[in-house]
Amino acid sequence: MDTMNVFGEQKNLVGWYSSPASGLKSDVAVVMLTPGMLSHVGPMRLHVQLARGLERMGIASFRFDISGIGESLPVGESGCSLERAAKEIRQALDLLETQHGLRKFALFGLCSGADDALAASLQEERVVGLSLMDGCGFRTNRFYLNRFRQKYLPKILSYKKWKELLSDQLGGGSRAYLTMPMGNDVREFADRDTCQQQIRQLLARGARMQWIYTGGSIDYYSYENQFFEMFPLLRPNPLLSIYHYPLVDHLATMLRDREMIQNTILDWCGAFIKSHPRTEPSKAIAIPTSVSSFAVSFVGS
Hints:
By secondary structure, the chain is α/β, with parallel strands linked by helices. Helices cover 40% and strands 16% of the residues. It has 10 helices and 8 strands. The chain has an 8-stranded mixed beta sheet, with helices on both faces. The protein starts with a strand and ends with a helix.
């Protein structure tokens, strides 16, 4: 069952709370963050489908729009987008705690949503898990070797490419792009040492972390186990789960790929049912008025 919520200090944020009709099985709720300029439904409704899967498992979830995205109004403070997102994520957690009594959370984010999730979790002790898709990454020596083998060596050995090059040179110009050239997207994650330290800080706190890399991160992540070559101080750790799906695009556009990503995330979330099972709040024992009056009179005598 979905419930729309308008919240935040400026009452400008909009989110949807999903809760299983059969009751919660875990004290952990999953909060899904907007990826880039996409709204709370996620790419190809990924967040909605995750919410439905979590409902079947007995886990609550909340998906909302960062200010200026989707249905959330662009009201709030200026400055660093990571700091602004962290503040708004905190307001979402406050809402879930106040209205639903939830005090433990796992954050899911794709691309810039992963950056926001990591930044917010460092400030929020209530975050006990992170699932990050195409999050921060850094090129390694092996990355550059693979890049040469996969991208440049085939061109060097290609008769067609040499013919095109000679044709361009002899023609006095260069071939026009058949499609728009790739731009340089700006990501706000920190340098390698800082990121490694941040992850170590979260692991020391006991937070579970799932890192998923797709073919959409090919510019900085391209092979199995690159994560531990980027961050050698993090291996081994049972709280870390690393996945690499090089044939899946950044938004998991294909239905088959999206279902695989969903299952990967849902399987990981299932661990919270065992590690953080639902505990009902303790109920005070009601004392009848006559009994309490008798006790007071007895003590008073």
